[in-house]
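Z., the sequence and structure:
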Amino acid sequence: MSVLQDFWCTDELALHTFASLPAPDLRNCAQVSRSFNRTAVQSVLDQHKIWNAEQSAVLQLADNPNDLDGLSALLLSVHVKSLASVTFSLERVTALQSALKAFHKMQRLVGRMASLHTVYVNWPSDAYQNQPISDKMLATACKCLEEFLDTIISKGCATLQFNGFNAFASKYKLKKNPAIRAAEIPRAPTAERLSIWEGARGYLPSLHTRATSDVLSPLSEEGNYSRKPSRFSISTPWISLTPSPKLGQVTKLTTFYAYSTGVFRPPFSQWTFALLKASAVTSMCLTLQDMPDDGVESKLMLDRLAEAIPDVTTIRLYDARSGLMKDFVARLGRFQQLQYLHIEPACFSTGDDIDDLDLQALARLPHICQLGSSSHFLCAYLASCRNIDGGHLPRNLEVIMRHIWTSSAESAVSAFIKDVERLHNAVMETPFQCLYHAIDLSFDCFPDRAKALGRIWNRLDSGILRPVSDAKKVSLEAPPCFRPAESGSWVSLALRITATEDEIQRGVMDEEVISFCRMFPTLEELRLLLDGPFPGPGLPLRQERLDKLKSVCPELHHASLYF
């Protein structure tokens, strides 16, 4: 059979034909038969690069609810019955009325599914903050969101991710209650002093009650907040998302990502904290960059969070304002089940952020087994461990030095080497019985940084780059070398690079990878991370790739590709 005949006998011609139809006609075609439905829906999904919607669907919602976007296509489908991972992105939705219609359509889609595992909602809602919103519209928006989120939870969602969700939060302010402010003033020795939240709890009576018994009353913490009165009314009604009384019976949530603190403030906070308390959340990812400027409110928020997820085992922090980490680290001692803690170096924007940290509570956590952050933070943690009785330290610990490589200038390379050696010296002085040491490098442009570093090594090999007497000038005498036999550490290197699996396995990136491996001649494990912060199972590199890498790292035993 000829290629032309193959084309006519497959669905390719139908896909091309449906792709050219206007939206009303395409909707009609999707209702003709199950075969037409599959092809018509897929023709729309192909335009949005969604090849297998049941496994992963990234839905960019259109501002005009009548447009046939990916969400509308899935609503037409009679074949998609479950969602493993779905992303709802409202970046293009700039009108509040359109956003509410979008959330209604999102609820309809989720409600039709037999199950779903991961839901990511990106609602960059800053566009609505400056718009005049009536009480009626706010109540309608909260009700719409409440129904959508409750539907997600009722379908057994295990991983929930929020980004944005700042709309309406600016309309709620923490009351300037003198009693609450006084609770933050230290009046007793540190050992006897209650936390800010515990000290203020007595001053936070619930100011709002519900008449019906089947609806949960607002949490007493919400009584701290008040809405700005409008020019049309003296008293402003309390409007928020109300958690369902069946929340604890249906939730299967174990992983919660909050890329904005808007979900921890009214009108969303009542629903969010009720969900966290009712769920067995073991993994939490937070971005604290947009924490409220009010110091009292930010500390109350952190205390409420610590109270809601006491059994969390994994915490990842991605951004925080200068000085905020001191408040967060002070609460780490309350997470007694914590095992994995990852703090991005960007959380420490100044050296003072680390110098002022009290890490004794973190050092005493009994189950901590993996700690990832900047070298300065890791050195401070390891130094605090020296003051702890060895019997209270974990037997095995993995420390991961995270570094964002934005320059391959000699000064930047020299600074990185000093950070590595500083951490190595701290490792040598710790009382841990077994320490696994990893370096995790991410890049703004991997090929450029690798080529520039390769040129430095070539100059070093040729003898052009020599030591100089002026201490202010930078020189590199030799690559740093870990001494795992002395420190008892196992050395691993992770490179987050932009490449394809085929390019890596064919050796296209060998020279670039080797330029970084040269800094660690005693390297024992190499991981190449191609996509995403949390890659899946690793694929071993081909033997010829491993042999080439071992020419510069003779002790390399494991080299894997993650994507």
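Residues 504 and 547 are 14 Å apart (CA to CA). The mean pLDDT is 80.

Let me know what you think.
H.
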